[in-house]
Design brief:
This protein has 11 helices and 10 strands. The protein is α/β, with parallel strands linked by helices. It has 2 domains: 122 residues, Rossmann fold (3-Layer(aba) Sandwich); 141 residues, NAD(P)-binding Rossmann-like Domain (Rossmann fold, 3-Layer(aba) Sandwich). 41% of the residues lie in helices and 14% in strands. The strands form 2 sheets. It has a 6-stranded parallel sheet, sandwiched between helices. Strands 1-3-4-2 form a 4-stranded mixed sheet, sandwiched between helices. It is an enzyme of class 1 (oxidoreductase). Keywords: Amino-acid biosynthesis, Aromatic amino acid biosynthesis, NADP, Oxidoreductase. GO terms for molecular function: NADP binding; shikimate 3-dehydrogenase (NADP+) activity.
Length: 276
Amino acid sequence: MHSRSPLVHGFWLREYGLPGAYEFAETKPEDLPAFLRSLHANGFVGGNVTIPHKEAAFALADQVTETARVLEASNTLWFTDGQLWADNTDVEGFLANLDAGAPGWETGARIATVLGAGGAARAIVYGLLRRGVERVVVVNRTPERVEALAAHLGQHFGSGRIVAAGWGDVAAHLPKSSLLVNTTSLGMAHQPPLDIDISGLPDDAVVTDAVYVPLKTPLIALAENRGLRTVGGLGMLLHQAVPGFERWFGMRPEVTPDLIALVEADILRAHPEVAQ
């Protein structure tokens, strides 16, 4: 029930004058198989899934995209000829947000540093490597999680393109990084702060944060104070919704200033303690 997807898709349905609805459906993990089997019969053209259903939905789908197959997780479902398809649009959402917020970021982007090794990090590392970043340094406090991520994606991109690093190694990698990405919950409202020194980043580096509550995280504020280009996390949420809407309703929507303002206002209403 915390999802803002109904707000986003409802805006687009009204904006484009399309008949349709986007609804909440709280579903327990043990009920997911039956729920997905009933979707098509109940008139739904598809849906989104979020934690804790992403891996299960991938496994239950009849067909999966290449991105979902590599990541072994899905967030977007639709039906084609009665078959349930699954995709992972977090990759497209992350890249589209970067493209919109820091045009040309990939020019000369040889090395990126990614903080965290969870599901979001896996999608983001995949996207960066697919876009042509030569090497991605993945930083995490638990070495096993980084090693598992590197081993899994290394099967698809070759060994050596993902470097596992501990939290204490961040400073050594930043001087060569043209992009810094935070995928952890550190810096999120009601979570511990992200304690990091970014003074070593090059002056032309881009900093982005998957966290969007608060809208301007401490990391983004720190980077702005250094004069670096920054990209907030809200755009990833909005851009990842675009492919699903297009699959379901046959029209590719746009992430407009009106939509951004609508969602920002909703976040500030829900979290007045982070108003800026």
